[in-house]
Amino acid sequence: MTMRHGPRFLALVAMLLALTFVGAAQADNHGHQQPEMVKVTQSPHSFPETLAAFEREASEAGWSILNRNNMAGTLSERGFTIDPVVILDVCSGRYSAQILEEDAYRPVSAFMPCRVSIYQDSQGDVFISRMNVPDFLPMMPEGVAEVMEKSSDEIEAIIERAIAE
């Protein structure tokens, strides 16, 4: 199966571009009417507790935190003041390798690693957001969809454990 610029791949790329713009426009919804392409879960814990719990649970589940992007800190250095936002690039080698070992699946690497955002809104509420992977699965080749579904299920379990602590 070749995925080079096939209609399903192009639809996926278009959908992710739309997600970028829709997510920015609807960011203030915080899960009250969350966009279909983004899942948002409220945490009962403080921002630092939620961040630490997610990182701990991810590590215990065998996932790596490849990057920790402190957006509030970065923007603060540039003169902007925003509520805390940390975007984590998380990776599980067992899933990444299954996608990256297939030449036909490598274009999907543009969506890797998995990204999880932990943020606090202006009312002090804390949220965890991530891509709503099940909405993307029908657009993906079967092999990629299977891997992404398993990966997504693990991320969801990590989030559930992190907010239950």
TrEMBL record:
Signal peptide boundaries: 1-27
Source organism of the structure: Thioalkalivibrio versutus
Recorded superkingdom: Bacteria
Keyword Magnesium: no
Keywords, sorted A to Z: Signal
TM region(s), chain numbering: none
Gene3D superfamilies: TT1751-like domain
Matching SUPFAM superfamilies: TT1751-like (SSF103247)
DUF302 domain boundaries: 70-132
Name of the protein described by the UniProt record: DUF302 domain-containing protein
